[in-house]
Write a structure and sequence with these properties.
Blueprint (H helix, E strand, L loop, with lengths): L3 H15 L3 E3 L14 E5 L2 E7 L8 H12 L3 E5 L7 H10 L9 H8 L9 H28 L2
Parallel strand pairs: 3-4
Antiparallel strand pairs: 1-2, 2-3
Length: about 150
């Protein structure tokens, strides 16, 4: 059965195939680790985790934690859905061109779902990286909103 999410996954795989990078979709089947991103890739020596969603759904708290863990280790992460699928290739290139950062994939939602506040008990240089990354994320969201307004959505 073809689901909306599987359509997003197939489109992401097409883009990755054109990039000629290594990628696969892990299957847990009850034996693997839960919350792992839908697609794992290695692009230009960079580990990438891609979570695919459809119908306005968002990653679960466990999925956000896994995305956070990947980011913390210097990998790149993306959440792809029908709304941002058309610019997936561009966002992936932007993410890969950025220097590896240490920050939560989505601090507010992660904290809300876990009923905790994100802790910043890190040294000052890492806190600065965290804040810079969050500002970058907010700037990207602002850019996306401007594009939607221009298109009349």
């Amino acid at each position: 059965m073809v689901t909306p999410e599987s359509k997003v996954k197939e489109e992401v795989k097409k883009v990755l195939g054109k990039m000629k990078c290594y990628f696969f979709s892990p299957t847990t089947a009850g034996y693997g680790k839960s919350g792992v991103p839908d697609i794992i890739a290695c692009i230009n020596s960079r580990f990438v985790g891609i979570e695919c969603k459809a119908n306005g759904k968002k990653p679960t708290a466990l999925q956000y934690k896994n995305l956070d863990d990947i980011k913390t280790c210097g990998g790149a992460t993306l959440v792809v859905n029908e709304d941002n699928l058309y610019r997936f290739s561009t966002e992936l290139k932007m993410e890969l061109n950025s220097s590896p950062r240490i920050y939560r994939a989505d601090p507010e939602e992660y904290a809300t779902k876990k009923k905790i506040m994100p802790t910043l008990s890190l040294d000052d240089s890492i806190q600065v990286k965290f804040l810079e990354a969050r500002i970058s994320e907010l700037e990207k969201q602002n850019y996306e909103l401007k594009l939607r307004l221009q298109r009349g959505k």
